[in-house]
DNA sequence: GTCTATATACAGATAGAC
DNA sequence: GTCTATCTGTATATAGAC
């Protein structure tokens, strides 16, 4: 591995775990086993180094929609849920970093945030189109609103991943919940599609007094 | 407002928006319109100031479970969802800050993270107990698993709030999704537990989007 | 390309006048 | 309590030897 890449990798790691301000060039240099001056020889300034590190993060953010071919609608939804979850779980350091940037609205990484948002949008739109197709073909019940259901499924996934982030312990809870989410989605997409529309079924409006 | 409070408020704001490392005492002093030395006179060190700011954030983190009395199970679930969402939305700066600390696993704020996690747990457990009670009384369908369903609802809420964070623009999308989530939960909790319960059909609350 | 040495700025923190 | 002046360490960045 070239010296430049060594520096870049060290910088990416440090920036992602400690943030921009809390990471010094001296730390980067030490981690990369070079001198401070060499870091600035390759990357004009700390700012430039940071931007280069961002690009390093962006590289793996791609999505392959081809894997869904040949599956029925239910399997497609299942697979998309699993893929999204696994993808984010596999890139937790990057995700942490991006989330950190998002949270503090850092202007220097607007591009990164936009890129990740776009990727998120791709997943959500893909899920939406699967649901749409399922509805058109009457495979899914009529009360499914593709855009909204897709958005909520993604929200639930992001919530689980957030929990995964807060409790990085190998708590099997979150993994179980992913399975439970898939079951729940399946029930919703399966449930009595031929029955009358149940989307307008609500409980009694008048409060029932408790004992 | 006393000088100490003025400093504390400025510090809390800066720490929450820029993070610990990127916030200097000079910035805090300028924001509070005092000298650097005075900041350190009130708060022994930057570290102490930070911890004091954390306490400032913790104060509003309380929950009032009394508001659920007198509501039936469905209304309780609805209200809990709304309350949790509104609470977090009303404390977005604090939440951003906490999330930032969580994301970078900052040791100095482990106490804050623990406190917020505990609060989250309270909400989730409250929701779980509502679902449990509903199941015991056969108001909710038998396929409901209180713990898992509660966790997923909370995850979905957190996902929505995360989205709210990323797109702070007044996009009505997220707010609509909250309503849709409540409908979806209601359908799940209502659906055909007993056919008698489906008699309570009212006109759709919101217009349906047809593709 | 890689280093040491150094310039310059700013950080957190202290001393002491008022 | 509040300030100015200052100390000390460390940050980014540059200069120049090799």
Protein architecture, described:
The structure is a homodimer of 211-residue chains. The first copy, chain A, is an all-alpha fold and 211 residues long. In chain A, 67% of the residues lie in helices and 0% in strands. The first copy, chain A, has helices at 3-18, 25-32, 36-42, 46-58, 73-90, 92-103, 110-136, 146-166, 172-190. The radius of gyration of chain A is 22 Å and the shape is elongated. Chain A starts with a helix and ends in a 21-residue tail after the last helix. Chain A binds a DNA duplex (18 and 18 nucleotides) through residues 3, 24-26, 34-38, 40-42, 44-46.
What attributes does this structure have?
homodimer, 211 residues, mainly alpha, Arc Repressor Mutant, subunit A, Tetracycline Repressor, domain 2, 67% helix, DNA-binding
> Runs of chain A with pLDDT <50, length 5+?
194-211
Strands of chain A, total number: 0
User: What gross morphology of chain A would you assign?
Assistant: elongated
Overall pLDDT metric of chain A: 85
> What kind of sheet is the major sheet of chain A?
none
Oligomer class: homodimer
Q: H/E order of the elements of chain A?
A: HHHHHHHHH
| Overall CATH architecture of the largest domain in chain A | Orthogonal Bundle
Structural class of chain A: mainly alpha
| Count of separate structural domains of chain A | 2
Q: What would CATH call the homologous superfamily of the largest domain in chain A? A: Tetracycline Repressor, domain 2
């Amino acid at each position: 591995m070239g010296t430049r890449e060594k520096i870049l990798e060290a910088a990416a790691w440090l920036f992602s775990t400690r943030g921009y301000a809390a990471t010094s060039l001296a730390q980067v240099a030490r981690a990369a086993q070079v001198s401070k001056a060499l870091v600035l020889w390759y990357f004009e300034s700390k700012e430039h180094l940071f931007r280069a590190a961002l690009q390093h993060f962006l590289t793996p953010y791609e999505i392959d929609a081809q894997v869904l071919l040949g599956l029925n609608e239910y399997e497609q939804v299942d697979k998309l849920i699993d893929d999204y979850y696994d993808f984010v779980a596999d890139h937790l350091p990057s995700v942490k970093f991006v989330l950190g940037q998002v949270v503090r609205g850092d202007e220097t990484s607007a591009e990164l945030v936009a890129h990740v948002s776009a990727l998120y949008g791709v997943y959500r739109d893909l899920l939406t189109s699967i649901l749409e197709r399922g509805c058109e073909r009457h495979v899914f019940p009529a009360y499914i609103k593709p855009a909204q259901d897709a958005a909520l499924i993604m929200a639930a996934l992001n919530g689980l991943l957030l929990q995964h982030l807060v409790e990085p312990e190998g708590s099997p809870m979150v993994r179980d919940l992913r399975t439970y989410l898939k079951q729940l989605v399946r029930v919703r997409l399966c449930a009595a599609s031929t029955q009358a529309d149940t989307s307008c079924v609500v409980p009694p409006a008048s409060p029932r007094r408790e004992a």
